[in-house]
Amino acid sequence: DKDGQYVFWHSSAHILGEAMEKYYGGLLCYGPPVDEGFYYDIYLENRQIKNEDFSSVNKQCKSIVKQKQPFQRLVVSKENLLKMFAYNEFKCRIINEKINTPSTTVYKCGPLIDLCRGPHVRHTGKCVAMRVTK
Prior knowledge:
two-stranded antiparallel sheet; globular; 7 strands; 4 helices
C-alpha cells in the first residue's frame, strides 16, 4: 500500500537524519520520502560523505531502531522555531519561506526535532528493514 510505504520511508528519513547528525555532526537540511525511498540532505563544511561511511551510518540507524524511540508530534510557534533552529541557516530559511502560519508541527524522535507534518510510525522499532545504500 502506497500510504503505508510513504509513512515507513518518511519515518526512515527521520532515523537517517538522527544517525547523520550523530555520525557527521553537520547541519540537516531537508529529508523527505521520495518515489524510490528516502534521503536526508546534510551540510558538512569540511567533509564529504563517502561510500565507506555507509556501514557506520547503518550501525547508527540500527541502534536508533533498537531503541524504539517514539515519534512525538509537537506544535511550536514560528518564533520559537526560529530560536530553536538559530544554529541552522537551512532550517531557518525553510521556516521563513514555507511557514505562513503563527505555528506549525515538528516531530521529535530521540534527540532529533525536525520540521514535519507527519505522519509517522509509532516508534523507530517499526523501521527494522531500512538500510542506507547511496
